[in-house]
Every structure is written in C-alpha cells, then in structure tokens.
Amino acid sequence: MTIDLWYAAVGAVIVALSVFAFLTSKHLMKKLLAFNIMGSGVFLIMVGLPQHQHGVDPVPQALVLTGIVVAVSATALALVLLRRYVRAGGNPAP
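^ that's the sequence the OP posted. Answer follows.
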C-alpha cells in the first residue's frame, strides 16, 4: 500500500467519524466543527486517490486549494449566522 492510498484511507475514516458526529450532535457549534472536519477528510481523499504513473496530478490539488478557500469563507459565514441566531434568543443546542 502506497502513501497515497494511506492518505485516502485516513481521509475516509475522518469522513466517517465526522458524519457520525454531525448526525449525533445536538449543539450547532459541534455540528459546524464536524462539518469542517468532514471537509478536511474529503480533501485528503482528493489528494490521495488521483495519483498516476507519471507523478502527481495538478488538477485535484488545484481543486483542493480552491476548496480550502471556500471552506474558510463558508465557516466564517456560518459562525456569523450562528452568533446572530444565539443573540436573537435561539438556543445553540435545540
């Protein structure tokens, strides 16, 4: 088993654990954290799987880099929305 497949296998385990945490958690902040960890696992899978005989494929790496930027922006937006929800009287753990 090559190191690339190890990245993909670890990414799959991270995705599975974070899906379980996302589905079982009641607190909204824990759900957001589990969702971000799930994205990191997907990024590991995307980097680990598309290797070929000639070396590294640059397209998945570019997609992962773009995905990281989008994930940071989406997390910032989710935190602002969560903060406004709590300030408006909502309970973060319904």
